[in-house]
Amino acid sequence: MRTDPEAGARAFMGLVMILLTCVGIALIGHASDDPMAVFGYLLMLFGIFYVFGLIRQHFDAIEKHKTSEQSAQSAKRLAAAAE
Fold first, then answer.
1. Domain membership flag for residue 52
2. Mapping DSSP to helix (H, G, I), strand (E, B) and coil, where does residue 8 land?
3. Tens digit of each residue's pLDDT (9 = 90 or more) over 25-50
4. Is 76 among the domain residues?
5. For residues 4 and 15, what is the distance between their CA atoms, to the nearest angstrom?
6. Measured between alpha carbons, how far is 41 from 26 in angstroms, rounded to an integer?
7. What distance in Å separates the CA atoms of residue 4 and residue 2, rounded to the nearest whole number?
8. Within a domain: residue 39?
9. Are 8 and 34 a contacting pair, CB within 8 Å?
């Protein structure tokens, strides 16, 4: 099993960004002027895009790991066939 030393930090940052997204939603709901509503929308969008980036990074790492395992297996088969 593969262990990632940065997984805990990414999970913590994901939770922080979800919290910032919720703060942005609260700002949008209680904004008394347009600049505060715009700030809430921007905060919400930043949090959402950051979390989607973390999800994409996670699945890209899985795909990279899977591809490296497949190439290692192919190299072993080619070495065995060459002998």
1. yes
2. helix
3. 999 999 899 999 999 999 999 999 99
4. no
5. 18
6. 10
7. 7
8. yes
9. no
CB burial class (10 A; 0-12, 13-18, 19+) of residue 69?
A: exposed
Q: Token pair for residue 31?
A: 């904004």
Q: What is the DSSP letter of 73?
A: H
Give CA–CA dist 63/79, Å, rounded.
24
Q: Specify the pTM.
A: 0.69
The answer to whether the beta carbons of residues 4 and 57 sit under 8 Å apart is no
> Cβ of 17: how many Cβ atoms within 10 Å?
20
Residues 6+ apart with CB under 8 A from 24: 39, 40, 41, 42, 43, 44, 45, 46, 47
Do the beta carbons of residue 46 and residue 6 sit within 8 Å? no
Please check whether residue 17 lies inside any domain of the structure.
no
The sign of the dihedral angle between the CA atoms of 20, 24, 25, 26 is positive
Contact criterion met (CB below 8 Å) for 54 and 13: yes
**Residue numbers of the domain that contains 36:** 28-58
